[in-house]
Amino acid sequence: MGAVADFVHLVFLSVLQVVVHLIQLILSPFIFAHDRLRARPRRDFQSLLITGASSGLGAELAESYAKPGVHVAITGRNDTRLREIEARCKAKGASVHLLCQHRGGRSLSANVSPA
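RESULT FIELD:
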């Protein structure tokens, strides 16, 4: 019985090893792609337009890219919050162009703010 048990155990380990290698082969493109995305250097933009910058992700993006020498144009519907984001971006040294869309959605008022 010992020889049969050893053989079954050896076959089980071999099959398990093949399954692990197949899983690694299938998942490796995703793992490497994730590593490449994490290792990608941040681009140094000179000018950007960020929509929806009065809150959420747009506001965070505007603040994260704001630095001296960068021109940031921000748009949104809430004029008060846009002015707050504009002040934060200017505090970081960026020049800011503000475009506020009114609640009716028909017109844009452009306020160009020098750095």
